[in-house]
Amino acid sequence: MRELLQSKIRIALPAMLAIQSFGTMCSFAAAVVAVQAAADLGVKATSIGIYMAVLYVVGMLTGLGAGSFLARFGVIRICQAALLAAAMGLWLAGAIPIWWMALSSAALIGLAMGPLNPASSRILARHAPERWQPLVFSLKQTGTPMGGMLAGLLLPPLMALYDWRIAIVAITVLPLLTLFGVQVIRNDLDDDRDPSYPISLAGVADSLRVIVRSKPLLTLAAAGYFYTFTQMAILAFIVIYLEEANDLSTEFAGGIFAIIHGSAIPARIAWGAVAGRFLRSWVLLGLIGIMMSASIVAMSFFSPAWPFWLTALIAVMLGASTNGVLGLLLSEFSRLAPPGKVGEVVGGGQFFLFFGIVSGPPVFGAMIEFGGGYTNAFYLIAAASFAAGVYLLLTARRGRVR
User: Fold this and answer.
1) Considering the entire predicted model, what is its pTM?
2) What confidence tens digit (pLDDT) does each residue in 115-167 have?
3) 221: closest CA among 377, 29, 36, 391?
4) Domain tally for the chain?
5) Boundaries of domain holding 57
6) What CATH number has the domain bearing residue 308?
7) Is 330 helix (H, G, I), strand (E, B) or coil?
8) Can you spell out the DSSP letters for 202-230?
9) Is residue 195 part of a domain?
10) Within a domain: residue 274?
11) Is residue 57 part of a domain?
């Protein structure tokens, strides 16, 4: 632990955690305000699937090309630009509440989300000793559920006091304060930037090529796809499921949304502490996939008559599994990356992870509308996460992971 605290990780990790938290908060805002916003926009609340798809398609593409921008401008500068884009996306949605402007808002927030994981992976892999990387990456990734928890806690009371438009604009104060705050550490953490580094689209192809040419990386990317597919299907629709399908209040649904995200924070830390010391990350990822499947099946039996503690317990299981896995995935991508290619590998791996995020909400929404309702949709994503978990365990047992 002393070697960790004596490195630049003591500065880089809190900075990346704050950036991840407030950037992710902006991306999850739509899931919390979906029911109220849909009425003003003249669309169904299940259209949140299209919004999230646009957001993460843009994120997929910007993440692929992030490597050269990070090398030229530095991690902190790119993260500052990302936070500004996220804030502008929420301002746009709040100022002009029409459906096509909402999609423009999603594109701006997607522009912000794409570079965040390659940026943080580049700086954390550079400064964290390898044996500490699963824990460091998992700590940083607690920013994702932290951002979702903030959205679930802050937006419902702001909507009750004002409306959804003022609420989403108000929370942009947090990313903007972070944007200016990290400027004081920019010179220290962006000391590896190369102003002459060429910006090239060739890096996009390189990021994908390095994934598909490596069997362990491709296996990890495939499993990660199903995990993020499942994760975003749950996160995008859980509030709508509780409000529209079960006639529960926005405050109750927002609270469950916050519990799912909040429980992922200690879970990610625990997974990171266990991985690499007591259990191989690959095996742990397989077990988490099975836990993910079980918790989704449990939620499929939900009834408004349930006691709150039971609903909260399943929400904790959902958070620890569906929302607790990304730090381990990013750590494994970084570990398996060729020397000097961490940013490219994480950008390429993120393409597959974001593809799961993109396809999860619309497929889940289509299943609800045309496939027999929420129960069948829950079973579909439970089966996907179970299959991915079992496959990881089988590949680990056969010794295919180096």
Assistant:
1) 0.73
2) 888 888 888 877 777 777 777 877 887 788 788 888 888 988 888 888 888 89
3) 391
4) 1
5) 2-180+203-397
6) 1.20.1250.20
7) helix
8) HHHHHHHHHHHT-HHHHHHHHHHHHHHHH
9) no
10) yes
11) yes
